[in-house]
Specification:
- The complex is a heterotrimer of chains A (about 270), B (about 290) and C (about 325).
- By secondary structure, chain A is α/β, with parallel strands linked by helices.
- Chain A is built from eleven helices and ten strands.
- Helix content of chain A is about 45%, strand content about 25%.
- The longest helix of chain A is centred in the C-terminal third of the chain and has 21 residues.
- The relative contact order of chain A is 0.16.
- A two-stranded antiparallel ribbon of chain B has the order 1-2.
- In chain B, α1 runs antiparallel to α9.
- Chain B has one domain.
- With about 290 residues, chain B is mainly alpha-helical.
- Chain B contains 14 helices and two strands; from the N terminus they run αααααββααααααααα.
- Chain B is globular.
- Chain C folds into two domains: about 210 residues, no CATH class; about 90 residues, no CATH class.
- In chain C, the strands form two sheets. In chain C, strands 1-4 form a two-stranded antiparallel ribbon.
- Chain C is globular and about 50 Å long.
- The chains are: A alpha/beta (about 270), B mainly alpha (about 290), C mainly alpha (about 325).
- Chains B and C meet through α4, α11 and α13 of B and α4, α5, α10 and α13 of C.
């Protein structure tokens, strides 16, 4: 049986338009997989469904099954899913702004024992030395990059076996993304993590992931290894937006410049 | 001097009650308009335990524990179902609960004015706390208890693991759940603590002045203190309660005794006009509702 | 309009017209109370159910209307036809005051500000009563309407029926108008409404002004009907009853408001009837008041938790099934 098995997953929202209409894929332990697709294709919804909805979300899994390491995680609340080792780094609101950096790590509640937890906290501080310097700083005052590091860090303290990362690179300057990706690779080695990530930037996705799922209109359009997908030019044009490379990179550059300025100020 | 003592006693009463409003609002974003009724039930719990065990050192803690359980049960059996519903629906549910409790209390305990201090054999004596200012010994106890409660709450929220989780859940419930925190457990706990502190206030007031449905009005009048200070700030509740109490005591003394029931709400209106997020509250709280 | 609907309407009209000739004075009184409650509930439904503005100050507005009528009648001997519009004017004015916080506040803050205003109005009413020495309340003589002195429930019935029907018709037309559409827009999302070119502030204020005026007039009618005004009659419980009417009836439905008004008005009588038949009836009858509160709270909770669509929601479901 696969490590993660998503089978015919349907999600509907009470109000919004995005939803899933039958998403299926599997992951093996140790794999890094990316979910790609256009805006509104259902990438974030897939991750959120995996990590569990709460009453506030107004969303629910209407059909299908999520199996993780022999357990059924379908419709389980997020705190149970997290304690099973499936941990999400959300796209936004990823840290508690009024808690300090250290409190953000400390607040985590998991199955791990006290010693394991402090080991993991030490690991986070070793791998992200920047966070160790900022231990006492309120998380709301961190820069975008630091915030992403903290979000990853607090997910790591949850003792994940499967890490779900929503938009690792979004809104961050390329230099920072580079740094975080490097740290993440090391940590992945440390903990032999399985990672499922959603990425706007196909470049970042393929640098990390060894395979990918392409979503379109709430359904899986394509799956394959990174090499296969990257070398397939038809795929590139249709799903990865490389056909509009010029426009895309222009926007990316503008965004990166703005963020680099912000980082400089912070 | 007497006025100052009165202000401090009334302020302590309001503060001990209003921290319950703040705790529940800050952690679960629900305004509990049944707080007055629940604290009254807490006082009736003392009346019951006092009737069975006429020893204050047993009857009061037992009633306190029962009210803690009552608060948690209110969340688990009722308010839990309102997660994800509109603000209006949640407020109305607490109002409906309040009405239900008013009826239930009269059915079980009658509407008569009763004295839990009698079976416990407690007599309030008069104590000179400041030169020329006397308050009842139970009022003095109330002031001390309020100080203790606020001290423990600050320490609990700042230093304990559960307090940290509560602060996290208040800031971002979804992320808290994703970080492994059982929201329902946290909410049940905060309801328990809030109703416990409110009930302690109800018990102490009724030991001093007797017990009937007027306790509800005291509970409601304590709310403006919480809002003046800022609905999501515990320190604010303390300061706000003192401000409201000072205004109430002074206006009754120098202007018109009939103002007693309306002063807190006048201050509340003024606050809503000029600084709705309160003295110590965060501005974002306004947009979150 | 479909044939069945027309038939139902004719039957309802016939029943309403035949009612005074078939029931006792006590039941006529209850019918009148339902009509009075319907007017107030329709107003609150417009405000909360359609414009989406929370108000916990309804009893305050009813009191304001009742006191306006009472004071005018007592102090100046003003007739009915002056008292009612004057109450409406007071209501409109208070509506501006009640509505002002809504420009800045939403959700619980708005609820709390209207609650505070309720206490303010009640205080002013109480103050007036003590100052003028009417410590038990103000007596009002039965008003003359079209040359008829309204002194018993049967005489009142046609007046209140017309009042309720007018309010219903006015509400319907209002909802179909530009104003009603603007209310629906701010109810859903304010930013979107603003983007559509709707003046959100003015729309909100209008909602408060119009509904407060109606509510105050209902309060004045209540005062005339009772022949007596006392601040005791406008406790917070009254507000809660009106809020319960629109919840039990079903948010966002005018018919629901009327159904809810009927339900809430009838409830105490039903409970009283029920306790009489209970074996322990004698023992409990002393606390009918308490039973009322308890049952009322329970029913409200039941609707909020299990049937947020109210009676109209149930009706729709039954219809869908049948």
């Amino acid at each position: 049986m696969a490590f993660l098995e998503v089978k015919d997953l349907h999600v509907s929202y009470q109000r919004a338009i995005t939803a899933l209409t039958g998403v299926s894929f599997t992951m093996e332990e140790g794999q890094i997989m990316a979910i790609l697709g256009a805006n509104g294709a259902g990438k974030t919804t897939t991750l959120r469904a995996l990590s569990g909805f709460i009453g506030l979300d107004n969303a629910r899994v209407t059909k299908g099954r999520i199996g993780f390491d022999g357990q059924d995680l379908t419709r389980r609340p997020p705190y149970e899913v997290t304690r099973q080792g499936v941990v999400l780094v959300p796209e936004r609101d990823k840290v508690f702004p009024n808690l300090s950096v250290h409190e953000n790590l400390e607040v985590v509640t998991s199955r791990a024992s006290g010693t394991r937890r402090s080991e993991l906290t030490d690991l986070v501080y070793t791998r992200f030395p920047r966070l160790a310097q900022l231990r006492k700083r309120e998380a709301g005052l961190l820069s975008g990059g630091e915030r992403q590091m903290l979000a990853l860090g607090s997910a790591i303290v949850c003792a994940p076996r499967l890490l779900l990362i929503d938009e690792l690179s979004l809104g961050l300057a390329p230099v920072i993304v580079e740094e975080i990706v490097e740290h993440l690779r090391v940590i992945r080695q440390d903990l032999s993590l399985t990672i499922l990530l959603v990425e706007q930037s196909a470049a970042v996705a393929f640098r990390l992931a060894d395979s990918a799922v392409v979503l379109e209109h709430g359904e899986v359009a394509l799956t394959g290894t990174s090499e296969a997908l990257q070398s397939d030019s038809a795929v590139q044009n249709a799903y990865l937006g490389t056909g509009t490379e010029g426009r895309r990179s222009y926007r990316a550059v503008a965004e990166a410049r703005r963020l680099a300025e912000q980082e400089g100020r912070a | 001097m007497q006025l100052l003592a009165n202000i401090i006693v009334l302020g302590a009463i309001y503060a001990l009650i209003s921290c319950g409003y703040v705790l529940i609002y800050r952690v679960s974003r629900v305004l509990n308009l049944a707080h007055g009724e629940l604290m009254m039930v807490g006082a009736y719990l003392l009346l019951t335990t006092a009737g069975m065990i006429p020893n204050p050192w047993i009857a009061i803690p037992v009633a306190g524990l029962l009210s803690l359980a009552m608060g948690a049960l209110v969340y688990l059996l009722l308010m839990r179902r309102m997660t994800g519903e509109s603000v209006l629906a949640a407020i109305l549910t607490t109002i409906a609960l309040g009405i239900l409790l008013r009826g239930v209390v009269v059915i079980f305990f009658s509407a008569a004015h009763q004295y839990p201090s009698v079976p416990l054999g407690l007599h309030a004596s008069s104590v000179e706390v400041l030169p020329g200012a006397r308050i009842s010994s139970l009022s003095l106890v109330l002031v001390v208890v309020t100080a203790l409660v606020y001290g423990s709450l600050f320490a609990f929220l700042r230093l304990s693991r559960w307090g940290l989780r509560m602060r996290a859940a208040g800031q971002n419930p979804l992320l808290a759940a994703q970080r492994g925190i059982n929201l329902h457990g946290i909410y049940a706990m905060v309801w328990g603590i809030a109703i416990f502190t409110g009930s302690i206030a109800g018990m102490l007031i009724s030991l001093d002045a007797g017990l009937d449905q007027t306790l509800i009005m005291i509970g409601l009048k304590a709310f403006p203190g919480a809002l003046v200070g800022g609905l999501d700030s515990l320190l604010g509740a303390l300061v706000g309660s003192l401000i409201v109490a000072a205004a109430e005591v002074l206006l009754i003394q120098y202007v018109n005794p009939l103002l007693a029931d309306v002063v807190p709400f006048l201050i509340l209106i003024a606050m809503l006009v000029f600084r709705p997020w309160g003295l110590f509250g965060t501005r974002e709280a306004l947009d979150r509702v | 309009m479909s044939k069945t609907k027309l038939l139902a309407l004719i039957l309802a009209a016939a029943a309403l017209l035949a009612l005074p000739f078939t029931v006792s004075g006590a039941w006529m009184d209850i019918a009148n109370q339902i009509l009075l409650a319907s007017i107030g509930a329709l107003a609150l439904m417009l405000l909360t159910g359609f414009a989406g503005q929370i108000s916990l100050g309804h009893a305050g507005l009813l009191a304001a209307g009742a006191f306006t009528a009472g004071i005018l009648s007592r102090e100046l001997g003003a007739p009915f036809w002056v008292g009612i519009p004057a109450a409406g004017l007071t209501g409109a004015l208070l509506g501006v005051i009640f509505g002002l916080p809504s420009l800045r506040l939403r959700g619980i803050y708005l609820a709390v500000s209207t609650l505070a205003l309720h206490f303010l109005v009640v205080y002013l009413g109480g103050e007036y009563e003590t100052r003028r020495g009417f410590s038990t309340g103000i007596l009002i003589d039965p008003p003359m309407v079209f040359g008829i002195e309204l002194w018993d429930p049967f005489a009142w019935y046609p007046v209140l029926l017309v009042g309720a029907i007018l309010t219903y018709a006015l509400s319907r037309n209002l909802l179909k108008s530009r104003t009603g559409r603007a209310w629906a827009a701010i109810h859903d999302t304010e930013p979107v409404a603003a983007a559509l070119g709707i003046n959100v502030a003015r729309t909100k204020l209008w909602a408060f002004v119009i509904t407060s005026a109606i509510t105050a007039m209902a309060g004045a009618l209540f005062a005339y009907y009772r022949g007596f005004v006392s601040i005791e009659a406008f406790s917070l419980f009254v507000t809660i009853q009106y809020v319960a009417m629109i919840i039990i009836g079903g948010m966002g439905s005018l018919t629901g408001a009327v159904l809810g008004a009927a339900f809430v008005t009838l409830l105490p009588h039903l409970i009283e009837g029920a306790t009489r038949y209970l074996p322990t009836g004698g023992a409990i009858s002393g606390s009918v008041f308490a039973m009322n509160y308890a049952a009322f709270g329970l029913i409200m909770i039941a609707f909020l938790v299990f049937e947020p669509g109210g009676l109209m929601g149930i009706a729709r479901r039954l219809k869908g099934r049948g």
